[in-house]
Each structure stands twice: as C-alpha cells, then as structure tokens.
Amino acid sequence: MTPVDNAALPTLPQLRKATGIAIIAAAAMLVAFVLPAEYGIDVTGIGKLLQIKKLGADSAEAPLSPALPATAAAVAPEVTLVKSRMPFNESEMSLILQPNQGGEIKALMRQGEHFVYTWSAEGGKVTVDMHGERPNAGKEFTRYWKDKQQAGDQGSFVAPFDGIHGWFWRNHSDKPVTIKVKVSGFFEKLYVPS
Fold this sequence. Notes:
Elements: H1 12-39, H2 46-49, H3 53-57, H4 70-75, E1 89-97, E2 102-109, E3 114-122, E4 126-133, E5 142-150, E6 152-158, E7 163-170, E8 177-185, E9 189-191
Antiparallel strand pairs: 1-8, 2-7, 2-9, 3-6, 3-8, 4-5, 4-7
C-alpha cells in the first residue's frame, strides 16, 4: 500500500471555496442559459443577446401561467379556462325504450356553453346518435357522432351553436332497455322532446 501524501490533498477551506465557486457557476449557467433555452425566462437578457431564447420558443410559445409553477407548466403548458354566465346545472333523466323503439334526451344550450355527461343503457346495447339542432331549423340537424351496440358513454361537450344538443338512442333488441343520463355543466335544461 502506498502512503498518502497529505500535502497533495486539498484543505477544508480549499474544498469549501471550490464548492462555493461551483455552486455560483451552476446558478449563473442556470439563469443565463438553461432558463432562457428551456422555459423562455430571460432574467439577464443574455438569452436574447445570444439568441438562446429561440430554443425554448417552440415548446413554450404561450407565457407561463402565474398560477402554475414552472415545473407544472412544463408538463401541461396549455391551460384553458372557460367562464360562463349561465349558472351551473346538474340533471339526471331516464328513458325506457321498448324493443325497436327510439327516444331522445336533449339539453337546451347557448353557443360555447358546455357540460360533462355520462349515460348508460341497462338491459342491452343501443345505437346512439349525438346531434344538435338550431332554433327553427325544422328537420335539419348537425350530427356529432353515431355508433352501434353501445352500453354507455361519457365525456364532455361544448355547444357549437345556440339550440338543443343531445342524444337519440334506438333499442334494436327484443327486451326493454333503460337509458340513464347524468349531465353537469352549463345548460338551461335537460328534457325529453315531445
């Protein structure tokens, strides 16, 4: 074993000084280069001078929300807040469809209003058509989607225009099916059209 030459090892004050210099250098690199490149935050102006800010511009076009820390904004940079003048509403309805019978449940809504929904078909599967109708449109409607052999669905919906928006179900089985709908959000009323 070779003896250790204590004169070649750094002293405790030298280690402290080197560690302090390393921390200061790391902080300077973070502020001058990493923040402008990764998050578009250019506190010193060096990022703009060296055009480093452009590296982060593609991934962070929108300014960070002050309500979110930088780490949360990096995970979910796009935040959408939709406010409504319509009071919050919750409603549940059910509809019994006999064999080969169809039925509808609709929500009266204004353009831009939205709701979260869930519906289920108890006793069998159904064909479903979600669509909307403008006021005084007669038999014209806008279909959002249609599917066969469904036992339920859930999601959110934003009304593209003023009018009624909702579902039409048809029971193609030989047994009654009960449709249960729950809607929460911003709509005037949920109802079964006559």
